[in-house]
Amino acid sequence: xxxxxxxxxxxxxxxxxxxxxxxxxxxxxxxxxxxxxxxxxxxxxxxxxxxxxxxxxxxxxxxxxxxxxxxxxxxxxxxxxxxxxxxxxxxxxxxxxxxxxxxxxxxxxxxxxxxxxxxxxxxxxxxxxxxxxxxxxxxxxxxxxxxxxxxxxxxxxxxxxxxxxxxxxxxxxxxxxxxxxxxxxxxx
Length: 188
What we know:
With 188 residues, this protein is of the alpha+beta class. 26% of the residues lie in helices and 33% in strands. The strands form two sheets. Strands 3-4-5-9-8-7-6 form a seven-stranded antiparallel sheet, sandwiched between helices. Strands 1-2-10 form a three-stranded antiparallel sheet, with helices on one face.
């Protein structure tokens, strides 16, 4: 294998094993009180297109959530403080190598689950995009994260969802709905 490919594999594997690293946009601190009200739901037709590095990614943020950081982040302004960030980077590797990166991240994540470092780690295919979905254990009361990392069609895609640990269970179905809405659009 060429040194660049080995270095990129190492970077991906390292990032997958560091799932607890802060996301590019830190979520707000948790509030002292949390409501039992359900988190926002996806509104029909609430689809946005995120563009980066010639890639177009379509997804549906929840109704009432606010776009931040030029469309890279969305936040719930209802007081519950959930949110998510999007990262799309070019990754000039053959599909076979990208699949190996996903498998390696999955193996490392499953090992962390066995050791108690993650709540779950699974291969998650979303609209034809194969990625690894991890959910952190609730070790920090301020933030708990769910992260999906994928390599697809020459791109690295990462969605990081976060919420205060006490509100995470209410947000998780909303996060899963957003993730299920992700589509990589073909460049024109």
